[in-house]
Each structure stands twice: as C-alpha cells, then as structure tokens.
Amino acid sequence: MRVGVLTGGGDCPGLNAVIRAAVRKGVTEFGYEFVGFRDGWRGPIECDTMPLGIPEVRGILPRGGTILGTSRTNPAKIDRGYDLVVENLDKLGIDALIAIGGEDTLGVATKLHDRGVHVVGVPKTIDNDLSATDYTFGFDTAVNIAMEAIDRLHTTAESHHRALIVEVMGRHAGWIALHAGLAGGANVILIPEIPFDIEKVCDYIEKRFQSRYAPIVVVAEGATPVEGTMALASGELDAFGHVRLGGIGQRVADEIEKRTGKEARTTVLGHIQRGGTPTAFDRVLATRFGLHAIDAVRDGAWGTMVALRGTDIVRVPLAEATGALKTVPPERYAEAQVFFG
Asked: What pTM value is reported for the model?
C-alpha cells in the first residue's frame, strides 16, 4: 500500500511526532510505502511530494514545526481544486491519505472522503477546540510557554507598578488563555466565548493595585468587548475566510491606561507558542495518534479521525470532528473568575 501524508493549517509542536509514528509502524509492521505532500493541500494539488521513509523521520520527535511544511491552501478556492487532488492522488498511486490538521484541513478531508478518497484524519489544533477529542497535541506546549511567560512577567509588573497584558492564541476558543491564566495566577482572563466589560476589567486592575502586587491580564486573540464599549479594527481574511487576528492586547492596554491612569504594557506571545520543542505530554499524545492513524489505514476505516477520549484513542467520523467547535463552557470560566482582581 502507498500512503500519502500531509500537514495543513498552522504548525504546532507534535506534528513531526505524528509523522514519525505513522511511518515507523507503517513501514516496519505493515510494509507500507509513504509519500509526503509538501505544504498542506498545495502538495496534492500541485503534485509536490517528498520521500517519507524511516531515514527521513529519524531524529524528528523533539522538533517543532513539520518536516512536510504547511499552508492554508483551500482547494475550494482553486479552480478544479478538489478534482486536481483526486486526479493527482490517483496518478501518484496513493491508496490512502493521512491528513493531519484542524477544522479546515479536516473539512477538506471530509469532502474528499465523500468523493471516494481513502482518507484518515488526525486532529491538530493548538487551540484545543475540536469537539471530537478531549485534547489535541500542541495545546499543552502552548499553555506551558504562556504560563512561563506569565511567571516571568509578574516580577516585572510588580517592580514597575504596571499592568501587564499578555495576548495568547485563541481565535474562537479561550482554552489556552484559561489554562495559562489559571496556572500563571493571572488577575483577569478574557476569552472569545464571553464578551468582556472593559469597565469591570479596570475595576479588577484598580483592586489589584491596592495590594503590593501588580495585575496581569491574559487575553485570547479572539476576545471581544461588549458591543459599543470599545472600538475594534477589522482585519483581512485568509483562504478559509478567517480574519487575521492580533492587536486586542494593545487595545485593552490603551483602554486601561486611559480609564485608570495606570501604566499598561502588552506582551504578544504570538508564534512563540507554536514553535520549539513539544512537551512530553504532546510527544506522547502525537505519537499515539500516529500509531492509531496507521492502524485505521490498515483496517480501511476511511472517513474517520483518531481522537483522545479519557486515556483511550478511539475513532470518530470526520464529520463529527468538524461539526462544532469545543468552546469554554461558562462553568469553567466561572472557576477562573474566583481569582479575578
């Protein structure tokens, strides 16, 4: 059997561990041949491939990013995009395809499955917002990076008597902000699921300044204020129609300074959260996903995605994985609110 592998969407720590595990088991136990597609869906659209055998995956377990490269290429935005993918997979003799990605990449995989492509999905989203799996790899690494940054910022905030705003990833879901903020002892956490009242945020800031400590505000990049309370700039769209985010942290800092008279500074972690070495948790989870993905290929479980449920890796329909986002429920946010101010 000839198996294609691609990684789509944003990179995150653990992608290489998935690739390594699928190739190692597929070659040694099943005798499969692997073909790597470069840069997400651009690879099969343009027939851009690379060898993917055991020599190519040696030493990649601790590496961040993806040796295959990635992109946000959307076949739906390219003339005959889906047809080209199907035709080129057939031309290259690809019997099965492992697609590693988030809702957009797996949404494309779902449509290809409907066209008869033998595809298996692996969930990848640093935001941990795929509803079909308890956790996705890369999330734990991002939270630990953000937590360490918050730990370091506490002493600077206290030394200069400033409010420090930490902007973290999280377009539609505030899981990184919630976990990093709780672990790092943030005084306010702002997430996309619940519009924030800037006046209340400023009240928390003032309350914190009454102690000998300085406030830390963690804000997800997709957080928004209550309508009409703050002006927000709109950004350009990517190939899947998502607004390019960034800047909410600075706007919150500006409002805090204007409304409280206290000095406020912003730290935007951005792609720092994506890069570098994955944590042990993410290496193990990604490895297990890769092993179970190649098992799904062997079993002909087309149109499924591997997922973590409790401590078990299970298979779920691709359509279930892309049907709805997993967002922070109000009761989880209420837990964090106990520590605000």
From this structure: 0.92
Domains defined along the chain, listed by start: 2-137+278-323 (3.40.50.450), 140-275 (3.40.50.460)
Cite the active site residues: 127
CA distance 61 to 189: 33
60 is in an annotated binding site: no
Give SS3 for 129.
Answer: coil
Which residues does 281 contact at the CB level (< 8 Å), separation at least 6?
140
Give the model confidence (pLDDT) of 246-294 as tens digits: 589 999 999 999 999 999 999 999 989 988 899 999 999 999 999 999 9
170 labelled ligand-binding: yes
94 φψ region: left (φ > 0), alpha (ψ -120 to 50), beta (else): beta
The answer to whether 56 is annotated as binding is no
Residue-wise pLDDT for 47-100, tens only, equals 999 999 999 999 999 999 999 999 999 999 999 999 999 999 999 999 999 999
Separation between Cα atoms, residue 276 and residue 288, nearest integer Å: 20
